[in-house]
Amino acid sequence: MRILKSQYFADFISLCFPELCAACRESLVANEYLLCTNCLYNLPYTNFHLTADNIVARQFWGKIKLEAAYALYYFNKGGKVQNLMHQFKYKGMQEIGTILGNIAGEQLLQNELFKTIDLIVPVPLHKKRLQQRGYNQSACFANGLAQTMGLTVELTNLIREIPTETQTRKSRFARFENMQEVFLIKSPITFVNKHVLLVDDIVTTGSTLEACGIELLKIEGLKLSVATIAYAE
């Protein structure tokens, strides 16, 4: 009887305060968590794990040498992925990053190029921004990837030494200029002869990943791949 009452109470709370899908904002039903079943299967997946010559990889041609490049979703303004990323970055829903990392990790394990990864490194936030937000969204995504891929996340070696202005309304050249000499590697020996997967939340021009990659590729024997949650044209 007590179990039934608890269930009735839970159902009542759900009726009055329904949990919403982080992407479409429709009410979740039993056994759905954060994403409804429709969004889980029908968000705009890129399937970049199936082809080496994809749009993200082309972003870095002639700039930095990559082994492989990937994004989980296409990002369109006003779309469901934008809603999802807003909930993730600005509403404190860190668990979204973990779930998306799990999904992305399953895809990456289908690609032989990503099976040689040794370490996952999230693009770092400056310490002031980290204090303001309370978490690094790229690190949440990295943790989800690591869970699925059986890898380690290196959180403290690549650091953002200089705070930067928002990149949102900057041109590609201005974004690149904004990221110069921003990142520092504290202990390069950790990355020697390693295949590093550098991860971020969204790739647009690729200037942030490029700036990190330039520093990482100075290390002896390092191979570099990148992965993001979304690709925005």
List the helices and strands and how they pair.
Blueprint: H1 2-16, H2 37-42, H3 55-59, E1 69-75, H4 80-90, H5 95-108, E2 119-122, H6 127-133, H7 137-149, E3 152-153, E4 158-160, H8 172-178, E5 183-185, E6 195-203, H9 207-216, E7 223-232
Parallel strand pairs: 1-7, 2-3, 2-6, 6-7
Antiparallel strand pairs: 4-5
Helix pairs in contact: 5-7
What does this structure look like?
This protein has 233 residues and is an alpha/beta fold. It has two domains: 1-42, no CATH class; 43-232, Rossmann fold. Helix content is 38%, strand content 16%. The chain contains nine helices and seven strands; from the N terminus they run H-H-H-E-H-H-E-H-H-E-E-H-E-E-H-E. It has helices spanning 2-16, 37-42, 55-59, 80-90, 95-108, 127-133, 137-149, 172-178, 207-216, and strands at residues 69-75, 119-122, 152-153, 158-160, 183-185, 195-203, 223-232. It has a five-stranded parallel beta sheet with strand order 1-7-6-2-3, with helices on both faces. It has a two-stranded antiparallel sheet with strand order 4-5. Strand 6 (195-203), helix 9 and strand 7 form a beta-alpha-beta unit. Mean pLDDT is 89; it is low at 3-17.
